[in-house]
Amino acid sequence: MNNKTLKILVSCCFTAFLGSCASNKKAVNKSIESNLNTSIYKNQFTGLLIVNASTKDTLYATNSSKYFTPASNTKIFTLYTALKTLPKKIPALRYVEKNDTLYFEGTGDPSFLHPYLKDSTVFYFLKKHKNLAFNLSNFQDTRFGPGWAWEDYDSGFSPERSSFPIYGNVASISKTFPSQIIPHYFKDSLLFISNNRNRDQEHNRFYVDEYRTDTLTVPFKTANKTVLHLLENVLNKPITLSNKTPTSETSTLYGIEADSLYIQLMQESDNFIAEQLLLLSASEISDTLNSKIAISYALDSLLPNLPQQPRWVDGSGLSRYNLFTPQSMVYVLDRLYNDVPQERLFKIFPAGGVSGTIKNWYTGNPEPYIYAKSGSLGNNYCLSGYLLTKSGKVLIFSFMNNHFRTPTSQVKKQMEALFEEIRDTY
């Protein structure tokens, strides 16, 4: 076979391959269109973008430049910001040792005495110092995020934000505990009586029905004196409340592995971790803990080329003020895919049928094929992440559904059917 014949043969094979790919893409597009044209989508707002992770080709797009309420899909932006600003181990404290006193302040690290994270680095560090001066003035933010529902103040998914979280800023109440409430500091503030709220709005007085048998998690108010007394109680020593840390150069105490927080953030959709990660990022950028600092830095310095500028107001997505487009979601997911090794990235994200908030959905056959973050608020459901096809392709997608009145389970079933079709045929 001469070179000319070989070139013609290769050209013919390549042309046939491209034709096959185009035909396959057309078939998948037709299938997606058929799915989206069903009645369930008629009376809601839907946006979808699917992109090939390797070629960057768009497989499908509809309303991808429109703004949606993202709910917990906001945490994808929080994750990216944290990965870009925080070291492998979380900065747990800033401190200065002067004369015989340790002056210290929080960084926003949520792990101190957290009921699930169980990191003891800060506890043993503070325990070994005799004289402690505690500065809480570096927190210059509101305890709740913009647009959060005021009536959620006593709900376990909405703890207050703070510079030095302790016990995850929640009280755990159960009749099976020896003291019935953790932290024990609140034992005299617990009443086993029926009440339409779990806590007074302006006071740390807690209520639980006397017939309740499960554990109740209730946020507590994080006033400076409350945090000080909680810390004194657990360290069993007096602590001075200071207005500032000495101006001499501060040192940093590092604690828990950052990925431990990222996994809790993404798989459990932990709102508290999300908010504290933004504060941690702010503490790396400046000496002030304010989530706006981290958000502005992310948008201006880390993500200046986003397809559409989002309205981004908190770390968790609890606020309905947040507005993001599928294109912007896919843009950040693509950055994550390029910057983080796939094995590590997929350990952080929930896996369909296996872990996190999609444990009961998008089940693999037999291996997981969806690694994605869900986002749910009343009448809204979004899912953004990565889809693995049987042919070995990795697709990046953002599927956003807003303002529906049908049960969320029906929306999920329709989405699942679409994803399975793409997995099996593309």
List keywords for this structure.
426 residues; alpha+beta; Beta-lactamase; 2 domains; 5-stranded antiparallel sheet; 5-stranded mixed sheet; 15 strands
Give your account of this protein's structure.
By secondary structure, the protein is α+β, with helices and mostly antiparallel strands. It has two domains: 29-78 and 292-425, DD-peptidase/beta-lactamase superfamily (Beta-lactamase); 79-291, no CATH class. It has helices at residues 3-36, 74-85, 121-127, 224-235, 258-267, 271-285, 291-302, 326-339, 342-348, 408-425; strands spanning 45-52, 58-62, 89-98, 101-106, 131-135, 170-173, 181-182, 190-191, 206-207, 216-219, 240-242, 251-257, 370-377, 380-388, 394-402. A hairpin with a 2-residue loop joins strand 13 (370-377) and strand 14. Helix 1 (3-36) runs antiparallel to helix 10 (408-425), helix 2 runs parallel beside helix 6 and helix 5 packs across helix 6. The longest helix has 34 residues, at 3-36. It is globular, with a radius of gyration of 25 Å. The chain starts with a helix and ends with a helix.
